[in-house]
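Q: I'm writing a short explainer about ASCH domain-containing protein for a general audience and would like to include a description of its predicted shape. Could you first generate the structure from this sequence?
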Amino acid sequence: MKAITIIQPWATLIAIGEKRFETRSWATKHRGEIAIHAGKKIDLEACMREPIKSTLAKNGYTINSLPTGAILAIAELNDCLKSVDTWTDGYELEFRKLIYYPEYEFGDFTPGRYAWELINIRCLLDPIQAKGQQGLWNWEYDGQGGTGE
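A: Of course. Here's the predicted structure. Afterward I'll give you a sentence or two in plain language.
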């Protein structure tokens, strides 16, 4: 299965279903299942900003409880859309897909970047320790560790 390593708090925001678009400087042709891996790095400054701090808190997370170095969720990568415009209340992606608050606070939707649309996100009940990599990488899922809806 393909996997992507994402630093915290963004990996957890995806796993708990609050972040549906992972933004990158590069596009991908991959579609289908993708494992969401939390890297070992935590952006402490981001964790203190709103709405990230309150979104984590309402889901029972603090800076000290964010899992690292583990697969947190399995999702489907549905589409990869280029960010094309910005306006007062959000961002516009290709084909007039609009991104509103708070989603736009959870990524870098600067025009020219890419938004990877994630659907059917399934948070793992128990994170599975794994060593991450840059870019898309292959993760051998052995079927251990249940998923929660």
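A: For your explainer, you could say: The chain has three helices and nine strands.
Q: Perfect, that's easy to follow.
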